[in-house]
Specification:
The chain is of the alpha/beta class. The protein is 43% helix and 15% strand. It has helices at residues 16-26, 46-52, 79-85, 95-100, 105-117, 130-134, 138-150, 155-160, 179-196, 199-204, 218-222, 239-248, and strands spanning 5-9, 36-40, 59-62, 89-92, 121-126, 162-165, 206-210, 229-232. It has an eight-stranded parallel beta barrel, surrounded by five helices. Helix 5 (105-117) crosses helix 7 (138-150). The protein binds 1,3-dihydroxyacetonephosphate (13P).
Length: 250
């Protein structure tokens, strides 16, 4: 059985102080047995967040990392720097990073490999743009992105990875995918993982849906057999809403 995982992607929201306050509000409530609950905060909030979640069931994630351990890469943050803080997860290849910060399938793959090298679990984002969906290319795009992201991983690593299927047109628009469509694409990605690795890996890997997930629709997504949780932007910023999302994933 796969453990469902709710991950809040705070994007460029919340200071360190606000992050600590958020944990005070959700502590003991957004921790439900059988659901993994991860908050992915801006780098500057990570030390405060990691401190605040100590002794709770909440986990901490970053939203990006560089693939090198250290070096002359102005403005970048490495895996060991995150690991030292107690960060366990790292979002890799979010569509906003692909669109605004020139991330490619190649850099995504380097980061995924580096995440495992430095003891972090990547949450790998894949998903089609509106024009790609309208052209009937959803599965083809997800296949290319997934294959590239997982290149060079062992089956043991792949089964611990998390994939987030986030159709770009559904992010921040209030227009989520239907649960049926999301499940179809996620089942397709799972089958692809089986072809790349083996049936056990396909069965074990967790694949989330992301894109306008809210307390009001989380249960609908979770009722589908292949959807293992959600990567949530806007609705993860409010403590009460975040608690409901975790509850809805049970
Ligand atoms: P929203 O939940 O705000 O649509 O954002 C989704 C997302 O990009 C999560 O990574």
């Amino acid at each position: 059985m796969r453990t469902p995982i709710i991950a809040g992607n705070w994007k460029m929201f919340k200071t360190a102080k606000e992050a600590a306050e958020f944990v005070r509000e959700v502590k003991g409530k957004a921790e439900i047995p059988g659901v993994e609950s991860v908050i992915c905060a801006p780098f500057t909030a990570l030390p405060a967040l990691a401190e605040a979640v100590k002794g709770t069931g909440l986990k901490v994630g970053a939203q990006n990392m560089h693939w090198e351990e250290s070096g002359a890469f102005t403005g970048e943050i490495s895996g060991p720097m995150l690991k030292e803080l107690g960060v366990e997860y790292v979002i890799i290849g979010h569509s906003e990073r692909r669109a605004y910060f020139a991330e490619t399938d190649e850099t995504v793959n380097k980061k995924v490999l580096a995440a495992f090298k430095y003891g972090l679990v990547p949450i790998i984002c894949v998903g089609e743009k509106l024009e790609e969906r309208e052209a009937g290319r959803t599965k083809e795009v997800c296949k290319t992105q997934t294959e590239a992201a997982l290149r060079g991983l062992t089956a043991e690593q792949a089964r611990r990875a998390v994939i987030a299927y986030e159709p770009v047109w559904a992010i921040g628009t209030g227009k989520s995918s239907s649960a049926e469509d999301a499940n179809e694409v996620i089942a397709y990605i799972r089958k692809l993982v089986g072809a790349l690795f083996d049936a056990g890996t396909a069965e074990a890997i967790r694949i989330q849906y992301g894109g306008s997930v809210k307390p009001g629709n989380i249960r609908e997504f979770m009722s589908r057999p292949d959807i293992d949780g959600a990567l949530v932007g806007g609705a993860s910023l409010d403590a009460a809403s975040y608690i409901q999302l975790v509850e809805g994933a049970r």
